[in-house]
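Quick one, tokens below:
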């Protein structure tokens, strides 16, 4: 994995944080793991200090160090506020890799990681069933656009995957799926497993890219922010530069919004920024511009939005590793959404959707949690929302 930085290479950033004038603790103000556990070792600053000791040889990999690093959601709130650009979430990922190299990996992540190596998904499912949600659909052998579905939509949000296909079809786009899609590798990278033999993300990236080439595609679209970050940012870090344009669905929807034929309906909605799409990839405005273009839709913001957004609690292996803390984080987000008075809480991520929907159901909130795709399809059948008429 040449090109992807190891912990040592973050020493300048760690030192910048640790110097007495800058170990400021600003990042403690909005860290979900600190708010839940209330312990310094579970703050961004505390984790940076542990990394500094690890690098200096004052501290050795141990179960408690593993807990400290793996109890982070990788939400990136700390990255957004750090005045010296220390980027704690990326340092924590590098520390996870170091721990994994020394044999410290939570057993749930180990089980899922080794499954990715064998069956190309972290959900302990069979690769042969990856596209079981799509029976009988005839898609072309070659097309200019490929929909890369990702593991979460393929195995846990199949209805959403079906709806993305339906939406792309209704928009009149010429698209297809990969014949043999593998996990993008995001789960392995986020849990420090991307360098292990048999789980090397580089190999997954090369396989997926070769499959895209076979389809003759010029663009791929993903609806999962984890896949988007992998294709757009992680693969180039690994030295693999996809020669195709990679778009998240919200970008495609914005570009093609003249094709959105939705009915006018007076509704109030709020939008949850997925961490991996927003803070990690800088995509905030595209979904908002799509929503603002829809007739009758009033978009109201939660107090914490865009780079200041509160996480849904499911990223970085946190949902699997710490289910109670994960639900607590989601609950706080749902409360914030409910206070806006919105009828719909919308997002653009299968992880966030699954997490927020499940917790909202247990709380019996009447606010509907939906992906933007579902929201558009539910209103399909009106005039084009674009200003220049039909495409
Ligand atoms: S990435 Fe999020 S959970 Fe992790 S240390 Fe930073 S603010 Fe806390
Ligand atoms: S990571 Fe940044 S915000 Fe947090 S203590 Fe260090 S310098 Fe301050």
């Amino acid at each position: 994995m040449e090109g992807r930085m190891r912990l040592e290479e973050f020493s300048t950033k760690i030192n910048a944080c640790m110097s007495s004038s800058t170990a400021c603790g600003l990042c403690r103000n909005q860290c979900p793991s600190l708010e839940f556990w209330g312990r310094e070792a579970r703050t961004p600053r505390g984790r940076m200090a542990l990394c500094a000791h690890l690098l200096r040889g004052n501290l050795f990999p141990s179960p408690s160090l593993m807990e400290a690093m793996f109890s982070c959601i990788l939400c990136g709130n700390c990255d957004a506020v750090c005045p010296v650009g220390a980027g704690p979430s990326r340092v924590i990922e590098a520390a996870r890799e170091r721990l994994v190299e020394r044999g410290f990996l939570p057993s749930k992540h180990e089980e899922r990681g080794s499954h990715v190596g064998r069956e190309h998904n972290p959900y302990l499912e069979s690769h042969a069933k990856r596209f079981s949600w799509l029976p009988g659909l005839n898609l072309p052998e070659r097309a200019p656009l490929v929909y890369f579905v990702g593991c979460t939509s393929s195995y846990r949000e199949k209805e959403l995957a079906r709806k993305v296909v339906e939406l792309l079809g209704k928009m009149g786009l010429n698209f297809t799926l990969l014949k043999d899609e593998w996990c993008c590798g995001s789960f392995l990278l986020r849990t420090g497993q991307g360098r292990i033999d048999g789980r090397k993300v580089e190999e997954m990236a090369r396989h997926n890219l070769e499959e895209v080439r076979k389809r003759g595609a010029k663009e791929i679209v993903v609806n999962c922010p984890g896949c988007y970050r992998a294709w757009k940012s992680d693969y180039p870090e690994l030295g693999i530069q996809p020669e195709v344009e990679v778009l998240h669905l919200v970008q495609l929807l914005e570009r093609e919004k003249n094709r959105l034929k939705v009915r006018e309906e007076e509704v109030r909605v709020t939008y949850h920024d997925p961490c991996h799409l927003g803070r990690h990839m800088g995509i905030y405005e595209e979904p908002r511009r799509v929503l603002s273009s829809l007739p009758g839709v009033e978009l109201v913001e939660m107090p914490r939005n865009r780079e200041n957004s509160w996480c849904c609690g499911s990223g970085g292996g946190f949902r699997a590793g710490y289910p109670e803390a994960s639900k607590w984080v989601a609950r706080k987000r749902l409360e914030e959404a409910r206070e806006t008075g919105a009828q719909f809480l919308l997002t653009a991520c299968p992880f966030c959707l699954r997490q927020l929907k499940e917790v909202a159901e247990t709380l019996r909130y009447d606010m509907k949690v939906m992906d933007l795709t579902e929201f558009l399809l539910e209103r399909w059948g009106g005039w084009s929302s674009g200003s220049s008429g039909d495409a």
